[in-house]
Amino acid sequence: MTVAPVVYFARAVDGLDRLDLLAAAQLVEADLQRSGLRMTDPVAAWSRTARDTSAAEDPAPLVQSDLGLLRRCDGLLMDMSIADRNYIGCTCELTYAYLWRIPSVVWVGDTGLEQRPWLRYHATVLVHTRQEAIEAVAALMLG
Hints:
By secondary structure, the chain is of the alpha/beta class. It has one domain (about 5-140): Rossmann fold (3-Layer(aba) Sandwich). Helices cover about 50% and strands about 15% of the residues. The chain has a 5-stranded parallel sheet with strand order 2-1-3-4-5, sandwiched between helices. The longest helix is centred in the first third of the chain and has 17 residues, at about 20-35. The two termini are about 15 Å apart. About 30% of the residues are buried. The mean pLDDT is about 95.
């Protein structure tokens, strides 16, 4: 029995409603499952209280937890589709994925981010839509 590859789902989280983030992740997870993949969601891994309070005091446990999850994944799927958003956490996760040789797919919507040289360098694949991203990560993970 072959175990399905695991994809880490990264996206903007700061200042966004946790329930909305979790609901959106469920849609992505369903898409990935239909493609034969499993998903890890760092937002679901942290309790609301831990993320809101302890991360403000000491970011190390949050960052180390997220990176620990990423390190155990086979691929990275990243949503960078919100215009004019600073994607600091996502950018760091993408850099770690690159250094750890974890293939990454980033969807950018209509932000124009696909023109950014550093993003193009670190991402394995850049696309515009979630559907394109799901197809691309499935192609990378499943051949």
